[in-house]
Amino acid sequence: MVKRARLIYNPSSGREEMKRRLPEVLKKLEKGGFETSTHETSGQGDAIRAAEEAVKREFDVVIAAGGDGTLNEVVNGLANQPYRPKLGILPLGTTNDFARALGIPKNWSRACDIILKEYTELIDIGKVNDEYFINIAGGGSLTELTYEVPSKLKTMLGQLAYYMKGLEKLPQFRPIHLSIKSKEITLEDEEVMIFLIANSNSVGGMEKIAPTASLSDGLFDVFILKKCNLAEFIRIVSLTLKGAHLNDPHVIHFKSNHLQISSSDYTQINLDGEYGGTLPKTFSLLPSHIPIFIDELRMTTYND
């Protein structure tokens, strides 16, 4: 049976690779039994509208081609709909944290193979007030760098653009006053450097920040880095690269499906690498919410 697919792609993602590969991608999908039409995004929010339109037209499959930002917008277009098509990912952006968590390769042909095999799993997603995220939410000065890097710089330099921005922001690294309310923990006006709410184990290009995170356990993994100096921060980052940070006294880690976060400071929120407004916010987990194509071999291992 022929499946109707809508391919929503960001033409500037990943040094414009999707734009170059489009004829080959369409040819492969058509050969695999997917009758595929396309939508090229034209700016911020366009992928949300394109995904909503795909739902109205009752496509069987929606494919997000680009980076984490494109995927986030597509998820926001699908998440609040009563009918949600199966979601495919072609990770051709500068950062592809969520695809990495699912073991979806950056090679476009192999990523297409996963879609064509049609193995699916229902995954959890996060909701923040009236917006959604699929991989990570966070706050603190260094979480802002992913959406402060100009798209042209990302196109030219790729991942290097983020490292450059991170080095630029290090001298401005300051604590914020954070209050958190959940069933598991209550913090009042705590000085913290950064907080992360992880849905998967792949955050910021690293797979050991949230080593116990699962996409199907109905819980976020929440990390809070308490006030520290720059030397301590660099030490904790080095521990994080080895997955040895969870027992550090500066790190608070717990699991939750619902929490309220506020701050007396102006604090911006990062949702899947994109600007998500400012605190206060309420974060809720929606269990088994979106069907997604993954590698058959990862179906029993991606959420271990």
Outline the structure in words.
By secondary structure, the chain is α+β, with helices and mostly antiparallel strands. It has two domains: about 5-125 and about 290-300, Probable inorganic polyphosphate/atp-NAD kinase, domain 1 (Rossmann fold, 3-Layer(aba) Sandwich); about 135-285, Tumour Suppressor Smad4. The chain contains nine helices and 15 strands. It has helices at about 15-30, 45-55, 70-80, 95-100, 110-115, 145-150, 150-155, 160-170, 230-240; strands spanning about 5-10, 35-40, 60-65, 85-90, 120-130, 130-135, 135-140, 175-180, 185-200, 220-225, 250-255, 260-265, 270, 275-280, 280-295. The strands form two sheets. Strands 5, 6, 7, 8, 9, 10, 11, 12, 13, 14 and 15 form an eleven-stranded antiparallel sheet that branches. A hairpin with a 3-residue loop joins strand 8 (about 175-180) and strand 9. Helix 2 (about 45-55) packs across helix 3 (about 70-80). The model is unreliable at about 145-150, about 155-165 and about 300-304 (pLDDT under 50). This is Diacylglycerol kinase. Its EC number is 2.7.1.107. Pfam families: DAGK_cat, YegS_C.
**What is the CATH topology of the largest domain?**
Tumour Suppressor Smad4
Tell me the Rg in angstroms.
19 Å
Which band does the percent of strand residues land in?
A: 25-35%
* Rough outline: elongated
InterPro entries: ATP-NAD_kinase_N, Diacylglycerol/lipid_kinase, Diacylglycerol_kinase_cat_dom, Lipid_Phosphate_FormReg, NAD/diacylglycerol_kinase_sf, YegS/DAGK_C
Cofactor: Mg(2+)
Protein name: Diacylglycerol kinase
Keywords: ATP-binding, Kinase, Lipid biosynthesis, Lipid metabolism, Magnesium, Metal-binding, Nucleotide-binding, Phospholipid biosynthesis, Phospholipid metabolism, Transferase
